[in-house]
Structure formats: C-alpha cells, structure tokens
Write a structure and sequence with these properties.
The chain is of the alpha+beta class and 320 residues long. The chain contains eleven helices and eleven strands.
Length: 320
C-alpha cells in the first residue's frame, strides 16, 4: 500500500470513529479537522458507504450513522493506551468527585477491550504517574458540581447557586443559566447568565457553597462560551506598576499572571512590571510581599501605603 493510500485509509477510519462518537457531524467540520477539501471528505464518505457503513446524510445538517449500527470494539495502539493513564490521573485530581467516578467507570470499559500487551503497558505505568492540584478546586461538600453543570448545559435547565463572592461578607443565592465551564489560572470557572444581576457573570467553582438542579428552562438562547467570555465587562481595576530585581524574576514569572499582569519592560538591573488588578490591596499586595526586599513600588501611592501597613503588621507579629 503506497503512502497516499495509507494516509487516506487512516483518515477514513478516523472519520468513521468520529461519526460513531457523535450524533451529527458536518462535512465542514471534517474538512477542518483533517485539513482536506470538502470534495475529499465527500469521497471518503462514499468509500465508507460502499464498504457497507449505513451513513445518513441530512441536507444542510451533516452526517450520522443509522441508529443501532455498531462495529466490534476499537483496538488501541500501545501509545494510545498509555495516554489513558495520564488522562485518568488528571481527571482524578482536576475534576470533582462525581465526574471522577464516571470517568473511572468509562476507563474501565475502555480497558476491557485492550489486548493483553496494552493492559500490561497500562499496569506498568499506573503506579508511576500522578498529578496533584495546588489547592482545592471544588467545595468538598458538593461532589457533583460539574455533573450538575454539564447536565444543565445539555438540558438547558437553570441551576440554583449559593455563592460566596470574593470579599463578600455573606453568600448570595441566585438562579443561573450555565453557558460553559473552563480551567484558567489554576482554577475551574463557570460562565453563566445570572438572573440576580441580570447579566453574564463568571463564578469560581471552589466558591460555590451549594448547587441544585431545577426544572426552570433557560430564558434565552446561549451560544458557545468563548465569544461571551471575551466580552464580559471588566470590573473596576487599578493600575499598579512595580520594579523587580532581575535576580528574583525567574521565581515569580509563573505566578504573575494570576494578579492581572499586563506587560513588562527590562531596564538595566530591574524589570518594570505593570498590572491591572481588581484586588490590588489584598491579592496583589500580599503577593508583592513575597519578594518585597528585591522590588519597589512605582505607582500608585495607595498601593505603596498598603504594603507598608502589611509590613508593619508583620513586624508586630514577629515581636510578639
């Protein structure tokens, strides 16, 4: 078999797997996924049909496989089987308990179709790979938060939240319409339309104190989360500029993005860093103290004063 035929065979098989994994797949999606023309996709679909795969084409919609059609279990390569180990470890540590159990169950089904050699490969790796988040990603009292959110998005039903906002004295109760969830800056976030505020809001999952399903349908249609998230109105932010010694820069380069980092400029023996922070007097100020002996505040004066206050309190504690 020549290389071109082998490449086509691999692509056609991948298209079949994709069709089995989704209810409906558009030709344009397949074209973009495999980097080929629509004409090539149409030809591959005809090849599958000629091989006896009952593909149904819905005009203007896409392709689907006739309900009830099933192929024998898919065989995995040794490398694909090994990738399951990393996926399982990440799901155990970076999802909530409920979703983690479902993934474990799904992985057991996948492992059951592996050949003996692949099973041995996974067994050799399982005890050698681990993952650990830096902090709690979910409230331990609600182990099924992600399950409820996924269900809400798919069924288009509202969710009731009890939420503790940063800096709020008491938790608030609200009905929301989840649009999507995403992982960013070492935290899981929920993006949703909030009926309490009558606008789209962002919520951090570890600050959710309670979550419940409801029978209330969504009040509006929501698109994908990306465009909404990019247009979220910015809350009030303060510009903070600090100068940091080059010697300590490597120790803080990974964490600066969590505090509203905007840009930096190298100047002789120091680096001038600019931040736009929504919590400059708490989060950013306390982070600054970690390397304050090798930095200086350039602006604003209110931030400089806050650093002095925290330093004085620290000295008081040390003298006790």
């Amino acid at each position: 078999m020549v290389a071109a035929d082998l490449k086509r065979f691999d692509r056609t098989l991948a298209i079949l797997v994709l069709l089995q994994s989704r209810r409906l797949v558009k030709a344009q999606q397949l074209s973009e996924r495999f980097g080929v023309s629509l004409r090539t996709i149409y030809r591959d679909i005809r090849s599958l049909e000629a091989a006896g795969v009952p593909i149904i084409g819905e005009a203007g919609q896409g392709y689907t496989i006739m309900e009830g059609y099933r192929l024998p279990p898919v065989m995995f390569t040794r490398e694909e089987a090994g990738s399951f180990v990393a996926a399982e470890k990440l799901m155990q540590k970076f999802s909530d308990a409920g979703l983690g159990r479902y993934f474990e169950s799904a992985m057991n089904k996948v492992k059951s179709v592996l050949k003996g050699g692949e099973k041995d490969w996974i067994a050799a790796l399982e005890g050698k790979v681990w993952a650990a988040p830096g902090h709690e990603l979910f409230n331990q009292a609600i182990p099924d938060a992600l399950e409820i959110l996924f269900e809400s998005i798919a069924a288009q039903k509202q969710v009731f939240l009890k939420y503790q906002s940063f800096g709020a004295a008491v938790a608030s109760s609200r009905f929301i319409e989840p649009v999507g969830v995403f992982h960013e800056n070492a935290h899981w976030y929920l993006y949703a339309f909030c009926h309490l505020r009558d606008e789209y809001r962002q919520f951090r999952t570890d600050r959710i104190l309670a979550i419940h399903r409801t029978d209330k349908p969504f009040s509006r249609q929501h698109g994908n989360a990306g465009p909404y998230k990019n247009n979220v109105p910015d809350c009030a932010k303060t510009k903070v500029v600090i100068a940091v010694s080059k010697e300590v820069l490597r120790y803080i380069s990974d964490s600066k993005k969590y505090y509203g980092f905007v840009k930096e400029e190298v100047k002789e023996n120091e680096v001038v860093m600019e931040f736009l922070s929504s919590t400059p007097m708490e989060g950013l100020a306390r982070w600054y103290l970690m390397f304050g002996d090798a930095a200086r505040v350039m602006e604003p004066d209110s931030f400089r004063q806050r650093i002095k206050e925290l330093a004085e309190k620290t000295l008081e504690k040390l003298s006790q």
